Amino acid sequence: MTEIDHGRFHEWLQQARSAAEGGAASPANPTNPAPPATPANPAGTDARWDLLRSFQEGWGYEPTDGERWEREEPDAHKEYVSGLKAELSDAAADDEPGDVDPSLAIPAALDEWWDLPFNSFADRAELYETNPVWPPTVRPDPTGYGVSDGLPPENPFTGPSEDLRVCVFMAENQYCNEWGYPTARSHLADPPVLVSALDDDEKPAWLLQSHSVSEFLLQLAVTRLPAHYGWTVEEGDIAPETVTRLRESLRPMGLLPWRELGARTEFFGGPDVIVAHNTGYGDFGFVAYGRTEQALERLAERLGVDWTDCICEPESHYEEE
Known about the structure:
Elements: H1 9-21, E1 25-26, E2 29-33, H2 46-58, H3 76-89, H4 108-115, H5 120-123, E3 130-139, E4 166-172, E5 178-182, E6 193-198, E7 204-210, H6 213-229, E8 231-235, H7 240-249, E9 251-252, E10 258-260, E11 263-270, E12 273-278, E13 286-290, H8 293-303
Antiparallel strand pairs: 1-2, 3-4, 4-5, 5-6, 6-7, 8-13, 9-11, 10-11, 11-12, 12-13
């Protein structure tokens, strides 16, 4: 197995960002510049999709060629709730969803992602434990189904007199968090992504999750796939000196902290390893993923910890052929 140094992930990510602006090399093909936005690739996301594909392959994901989750697939829970409301109000359920604003454009990057032949979410949705929302729905939700509010008048994402709604396109499994883009930026091909979470004052807020839709979907794969395909070590708490060694031994992957279920998780990369360090709430403050068992053993030595009885085999090893 050829070693992959995830300590360079931030470099590959920056190359992909630059490629979207035109002229930079694709991280998966560094000798050839990736094309900027074109009519065929209006979001200029080819380099990020290239990075997504290579990341997935590096951790062992292979398309199953089975049934895919299609974007138009009905939301069974939403239909159930809508049916209950219709029964209670003695009225027929609306044919046209009231939480969708048809006047808003859907960012090109979102359409592109659904169409990717190597879209691991559409192929293996059970690995993600998130719910896609298609078409994107607005918050605040006039139907009452979506739980998040819109943006407050004073916020860093919109200007004066701009639309304060948010278009949600993905939600945590139990809808504890929602991810979306400012409605005022829906005209962009690859707008920034916000997450509904608690701010530093423990108040519900929309916070910046990713610099673009395509980067968010790449980051989503980073948070999910190593947990299934990698060797794993989970620690509830780690000593301050271990955190210091972690920051000295590995490099930040260049992604914004991942916020989900109260967690605030930073990702660090090294040779065949990724470490998720959570400084928020959650069962584990530290989770290390290795493409091989030996990679985690080498990391343990660098961090000065003993993981002799802690390394767990990948979940993928237990899948039926």
